[in-house]
Every structure is written in C-alpha cells, then in structure tokens.
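My hope is that you will study the protein record below before we discuss the fold together.
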Amino acid sequence: MARSLAAAVFWSCLSLSALSEAGQPSWEKLKPQQREVLAPLAEEWNDMDSAKKKKWLGIAKRYPEMTPSEQQRAQLRMRDWYSLTPEQRELVREKYKTIKKLPPDKRREIKQKWREYEQLPEAGKGQ
C-alpha cells in the first residue's frame, strides 16, 4: 500500500514537472531560431512566468514575417524593457493603464507627441 502510494506520488510529480516544462520551456529547450530572436531576454528567460514566455514565444513565431524595420523595433523594445528595473517596469505598466483609459482623441494626441519626440536629435531629447 505504502509502495503504491509512493509510486503514485512519484508519477504525479513527474507528470506535473513534464507539464510545467512543456508550458515553460527553459532557455536551453528553445529552438535556435527562438533563441536568436529572443536573445535580449536570455538572462531572464528561465525566471519568467509562463504567461510572459508565451507572449514572447508568440512574438518569436511572428518575427520571420515582420519587415526588417519591425524586427529591429522588436529587438530594441526587448532590450529596452529588460534594461529597466522592476520599479521602472511597474511605473511603465501603470502609465500604460492610465493612457488606455483615456478617450481615443487624447491617446492619439499622446502618440503624436511621442512621434515628434522620437524625431528629435539625441541631444534634444534630454531637455
């Protein structure tokens, strides 16, 4: 009886481990193409939760169909995001939520101002 219970616990743990690994592939288990696309995330990949991994894997899947400029933008955004501290990321998330609640005309105005800011030379951005 104890032996069958121990066997059941062992197989349950093994099954759960396999399920979690299938839902959360480690960096080493990613395909070479996925690792190449997601390279900016390599250091943090194994510590990410499965929802974030799923999101990034979706981006990696769409990556080959992106234009070169879209690919470059995706890579830069990954690098930028993962260079932020956890506090900075939380601040960005909160600002995003606030902006999402604004009326569409206000959101368009903010996007336009952002585009204008992006067009400034680097020296003018810090002012």
